[in-house]
Write a structure and sequence with these properties.
Length: 179
């Protein structure tokens, strides 16, 4: 039986594309690097904890800090705590391993959260521009991260925070923030 082989593809002959549905994971220091000292005390932030989750294994998962789960990174904001799920940062992870389980930053491909590394990944994939959607706390006023106190000054899009120091402009405008 003859083995089927795909014809060789000249990668340079493939067209560059514009990706209109990319998700970014905000860098672990996105809030602490950009908030004033006073706001850091009350604003969103990250920490490492053991965690149980997700429960149940459905679309509406919940997570619980503590327990005997893996050590992972958690976003904290007032009384809210959420880890980053694998499906949000699954670049380079085999599809059969995609899940709602928490993932730590060191287990993610850096292009998931680092703008410069993301550009390198985009070059490999021949992506000219990327429309980036935020993924974590404060990513949208309508998400579950609304603070109990009604303090909405941190409700700005995480991608806007990522761009707080002109990162998108310095990178040639290839990352398009979606607010």
């Amino acid at each position: 039986m003859a083995e089927d082989t795909a014809p060789a593809v000249d990668i340079d002959a493939l067209p560059w594309v514009i990706s209109v549905d990319d998700h970014v994971v905000e860098p672990p220091t996105v809030w602490t690097d950009r908030l004033s000292a006073a706001d850091r005390q009350v604003g969103p932030g990250g920490t490492r904890h053991l965690g149980d989750g997700p429960r149940p294994k459905t679309m509406a998962v919940t997570y619980k800090k503590g327990g005997d789960g893996p050590l992972t990174d958690w976003w904290l904001y007032e009384n809210l705590a959420k880890p980053v799920p694998v499906v949000v940062a699954c670049a380079g992870i085999p599809v059969e391993e995609h899940s709602s389980d928490p993932i730590a930053y060191e287990a993610m491909r850096p292009g998931c959260y680092d703008p410069v590394a993301r550009l390198a990944d985009m070059d490999i994939n021949r992506v000219e521009r990327s429309l980036c959607f935020p993924s974590s706390p404060g990513s949208a006023a309508r998400c579950s991260w609304r603070p109990r106190t009604g303090n909405s000054r941190f409700a700005a899009c995480g991608v806007q925070r990522l761009d707080g120091r002109g990162v998108v402009r310095r990178l040639g405008g290839r990352l398009i923030r979606c607010a």
